[in-house]
Batch of 4 targets.
Target 1
Amino acid sequence: MAIQRRFPGVHWIWSGGISFVYEVHPRIVVKIPKSGVFEREQFNKELEIYQIFSQNPPCPFIVQCFYFSNSGIFLEYMRDMSLSSRIQKNHIRDQQTMMVTTVKKFEPLSLRKEWMNDLAQAAAFLESLNLAHGDLRPENILLDRNRLKLSDFDCTAKIGTIYEACMAPYGRILNSNESDQGECGTFGFLGPRTELFALGSLYYLINYGFEVYGDRCLTEDPYEYGPRAVELLQNMEFPKLDGDPLIDAIIDKCWHHKYVTVAQLAAHTKTLLNERTDAMERNESIKESSEVVTFVTTMFNERWRMVMSRIINGMCYGLGELWRLLSLGFRSEAAITERAGCDHGNEMDQNYLGKEFSSERKFCQDLEKQGLLRMLSSGEPEQIGFTFEWYRHSLR
């Protein structure tokens, strides 16, 4: 309990495959490696990736690292659930076969497109560093409300490295027709092919509401489902795509490696956002134009009635007065149109990320100097007095 008295703001919120995660601030968590040899090796691999990240401008689609040392990694606190949990909470399953029978709710199409692009941009960022994530699956994609970011880089390695992670349907073993990609029956080598395939399956999950073959009973024995799914994917047998044609085309191209690079995919997914933006701008323009016409017409009619009233009542101000009154309406139209043309929101300044880092980094360094990482590494959470508190700041 001494650690909690000394650091009352620290809470144990998660236990991952290779590390324990503690909240140290409402916006910051720290990952502490577990004591096993394998866990320590994987943690060291992740440290190497964060070292590479630290030498490059931050990517807004990747969970940000504020500070790291051999004993811990301080990260941006994504305060909601993983993509996996977000999707699964909308499932109704057959309790015997566990296949998904109903998807209670789909995310809005605009948000799904945004998520597709965010994932592509994150993977393309890694590709630009000659890296492949190696474990692209929904459990490694975190949410903060509707913001989506890629996390967990302990399987990330240089392109061309042997592909060891990620099970079906986000990874697939090679068949006999793919000898150029590696030995049949293996996952092959990390590169655009492996990342694109995983992204295609993630896009399927996001848009169809369940995993590839998640709505089908592939075998009578539920325990044989996994091997059967692996076999189907190895043979490139995919479920029918009958959703949004533009999205289906992207999924199909990812599965069949029709993009040369992940960057090419990222350029394509960005057009999905441009289409939405263009449509919104067109609708807004039509709306604004309609409002301008309506307002100017109203102003014109009011002034016209006022002028006619004065003429009828014998209060003739002459033609000069009539023209002045009419001109006011036209000048109002010009002024309103000018204001309408300036009514646009600004995009978020990406430099904001960098500006925030210095204060967050200092906060984390101070915690290390005070001995927090040493104390958290001294034992498992329960042994050093912590109780599991889930995500205390989880957003509802």
Note: Residues 214 and 234 are 17 Å apart (CA to CA).
Target 2
Amino acid sequence: MKKLLLMIMFLLLVLGAVSAQPTLPAISDITVNETDAVSIEITLTEVSDNGSTSWWTNFSSLTLAQSNNTYAQYTWTTGYNDAGTYAIMFNASDDNSSDSGTMTITVNNKNRAPSITSTAVTTAIVGHAYSYNVTATDADSDTIQYSLTTFPEGMSINTSSGLISWTPTTAGVNVVTAQVSDTLATDTQTFNVTVSAQSYGLTLADVTLGGSSQEREKNTTVTLTVSNSGTETITDISLSSSASSTYLVSFSSATIASLASGSSTTVTLTGYVPDDKDAAKESIGTITATGTSSGNQVTATSTLYMQAENNLEIRDLDITVNDDSENVDDGDTVDVFPASEIEVVIELKNSHSDIDMEDITVTIYNDDLDVDEDEDLSKIKDGKKETLELKFSIDEDADEDNYDVEITVEGEDDNGAIHTETWTIVFDLNEEGIIITKALLVPEAIGCNENSVDLDVELTNVGTRDEDDIGLEIVADSLDYEKRVSYLEIDEDEKIAKTYTMPLDENLESGTHIIEITSFLDMDEQSHVKYVYLAIPSGCSVEQDTGITVVPSDIEEEKEEVEFVDSGTGESLSFSSNVWMTVLLVLANILVLVVIVILVMKFLIRT
């Protein structure tokens, strides 16, 4: 009995051990298409009690998405090129046992549509062949065919190559739809073809015979470019010129047999520069090209210029602004101010080796500044230089800006050729400053017996701010007169007037005496210079007109004392010239003499 019980217990233990092994169920086969998702779920029919369950598969594309001791899920997202049949094995195991199972995954091929990759040709010309090769690809390497679903009359496509052919007959916009198919799927491309009418055109570039260094009485050549700017071939092109026979214009080839659309050709043009040809670049006629295209006459015209060397040259140019001089070149900039006194000194040269230059005129012009000055010179001999001087002033109301001032010289040589040169100088007008708007002598005419003269000066603030550090300097070396005044104040756009009496020495020489008046900004920045001229008549000198000897008074003459530091020449001075005080002293002396005479007369009468 005991032996029986032991055997039963042993059998139960064996059976318990066998039932505790992990056991896989039968796993069904799966069929999907390319790009479909695959999901395989496995639940054990027997659960292991000998530790946790481990899961495994021989197919690496499967991903264990989730799992535990009794359940596992495998996933796979198929893609193109995954078509095929795959034998899959799964295994579940614990610490001392395992179980395996198999299944099959079948992935069917999924068709991919072909794709058009080419860019359409969207323009055409009436009467010209149009072509566009449609290009497409098929990822499955399927055989593809091309077709047109929308197209104008006469257009066709090669079903194998995709080449579209057409010759349009009318201008306009045409809608085209090209299609490519692999029998299962298609792709389309829709586009507009704009058809233009035929055009016929010749183009001739303007050309110049000679140049700035071209000698006269010589032949010269230039290259002429003839272009077909139309859509059609031009044939039988002929070239001609309207220039005077004086210039002996000729072509290396006066005919062109054919010129295709969009192409160009060159022809050498030769001309003669006569001795009376003006220096300036001037039109001497036209060039005409005439041809035939599709039964139509095609014509083009360009201008033919000629230029010879200029032998009347500006060699040097000095511009003085308010007594501040600088040498300038063509294109330079000069600083100027309202009411500036401008002096231009220009040196000219006749570079001819054996021909004189005559009737020469120098002109300075700018319309905005109202500048229009000219000066004439009768002749400059061959190889010689001459200098001319022109003076003008800037209007005191001129606006701040940059002004292109043209300085032009023109003359005629002995052969009748006109020579000219122009320089442009930029006047940079700055409104910041103090200008001298008036400087007058009173009286204007000086007699033999005058012993003083008044100088009336008016200063104007043309700037954009009030000024309180204005200096004024008056210098007349031949009159032995200097005066400097400091710290004058002038508000913006305002004026002040001052009168200064200048004594005249009794031994002053006859002739013209220069008085220079200079204004300063901030006491040391020269802003304007003006000159007035005192004329002393010949044959006399300034004398005292009373005939009475004046005895100086013991009272010191009142003096106006001014300190001023100038940026130019001269020293700080302290002096005064009060003519009225002198007159009073003379009258006082006369009165004293009269009293003395009366007293003497009374004394004589009494005696």
Note: Confidence is low (pLDDT under 50) at residues 541-583.
Target 3
Amino acid sequence: MDDQQIHDRIHALAEEERQLREHGDHSPEQRERLTHIEHERDQLWDLQRQRDAKRQYDEDPDEAQPRPEPTVENYLQ
């Protein structure tokens, strides 16, 4: 996944989240989807940060790999 694909996916997830949140009351499925969106978005931002760091140190950004959800979710914000 290249930088543009990562950013496009982040924006698509943000739009989906916005649409889901507009409707106020959420079904259990919608709450689950919102949680999934948040986790996927966190993983994508982490992947982008990895790519940026590799680029900064003259490494191949395509070697960056998505980290498992539990790893990313335990990072301090």
Note: The radius of gyration is 14 Å.
Target 4
Amino acid sequence: MHHSVPAIPFSSKTKSQCIIIMSDTSSCSSPVSSNASLSTPPSTPPNLYQNCISPGAKWVVQKFGGTSIGKYAVKIAGDIISDYIVSNKVAVVCSARSGSTKSAGTTSLLLRAASEAVGKTRSTSKLLGKKLGGEPLTGLFGQSATTPSTPGTSTPLSRPFLWENISGSSTPNEFTSTIDIIRQEHLDAASEAIQDIDIRLELEDEITRDCDWLKSFLFASQVIDEISPRSKDIIVGLGERLACKFMTAVLRDQGVDAEYVSLEDVVPDIEEDLDSEASLGQDFYDRVAVAVGERIKQCGARVPVVTGFFGPVPGTLLKQVGRGYTDLLSGLLAVGLEASELQIWKEVDGVFTADPRKVPTARVIPMISPDEAAELTYYGSEVVHPFAMEQAIRRSIPIRIKNVENPSGHGTVIHPDLEHLEPKDETSDSPVRVHPVDDRSNKLPSAVTIKEHILVININSNRKSVSHGFLAGIFGTLDRFGVKVDLISTSEVQVSMAIEIDRFSNKVLDRLVGEMGKHGSVTVHRDMAILSLVGQHMRQLVGVAGRMFTTLGQRGVNIEMISQGASEINISCVVEGKDAVKALNLIHHSCLQISSMGVGRAGSRLF
């Protein structure tokens, strides 16, 4: 099925480059000619641009967040991906669509629908007499998810097997209203972003079928009043499927030959028990990286649009990785394709020296180490998922954080540790060049961050001896409640810990405090914040800790707790929530030496 598409939205410069390249068969691909021989049908519909096929072209993996997909899909297709495929082979990974916030995004709505489906008793008579079924679609989304694309086909997009809506109930379930919200949001987005009527109608049909499938799935779950962890993985994975199908259709509408790729069945046969709670090992990640790389290479010159959800894993994907699994897949794909760069596209210009919404003088950091990026992520700055960073960095693949609203900006590069880098030839065409900084005497911290909504619990032992028993009891209680501690400070008879209060309900927190009371007297401080100063080799930066605490004390900011990590990457303290923004600005000015004049330093890089 061939579609008519509007004029290709390349700039005149890009078009002229493509015209010149057409005369060189070893260079990048161009729009397929409509005058091709009838005996050898073209591998793509006419007038669609493809990935660069030059032997020297390298892969670039581009991961787009849900908010970016929700707000800037047309810009991503027309200004970013279209530009990069001129000289690169691009693989696109999409998170589930979001509106203005994650809390109102597709993933949150899917989790809400799942919770609404269980715990209610419904009549099952209609379900038990209903036959499950469904026929595979034809057309743009008709190809099997596990079938590689082949030249000469006009149906390069794939879709999962769908069920009929089997509920047969005239009374709407609570979760159906939530799914209808998801459906309508995607239909509205398709109507706004896609001009070609055939592409839009096919996408709308696909959205409706996927949402009907989810209603059937949740109705079945409601009958047995249970949603297993693996079922929850599948439910959440629908968000990436919808986003990738939407993005594929937008790319097609913008003149790019895109192929939807579902990775739900790509995980190789695993010997591990799928119900195992053990952490995933590097061997597992290596096998997945190879499998996804091989699958994407089967797309040929088409631009693959890849789901972040990659099927069943031991212990379930949400438990093992969390909602950042799309970042992880991007890292694994970069490894499998031996990409020159992994790009994480957001709505900010890169990693800042502080949150620019709270610190007006914050600056973009041109280059940062993986350790620094991981610390910033942990203490409140969303950079990139640590698992994704680990996979890319261990293969010396740089990660670049870029802004969809400013595609020409340099962004922030997370480069591999210097001691793990091989020397680079000056003629190398690597997108990142790292120069070691031997003189640390002038080095400053890289960034300061704040993590709010923190609860501090202090426990003083009732017994002034047997410290090992006291500490064992405290840590045992934390383990039973599944508490993740952000900061901890210990002595022989006292433990202070800071935890993120949003992770637990008030009821659970009350029970936790009650259990802690068995080991000693307990005091609780609510509405606190963790202030963290981050930089490489912090222990060797003489006077930084003194300057940090002196600055806070002189300006009337009380410090509840102090901690310096064994990693030498950060110095952290706990302050009252009402002083959080004030403390952030004070430390940003005094320790990073960035003033309102607009010139300052972060780490060893001069702005």
Note: The two ends are 53 Å apart (CA to CA).
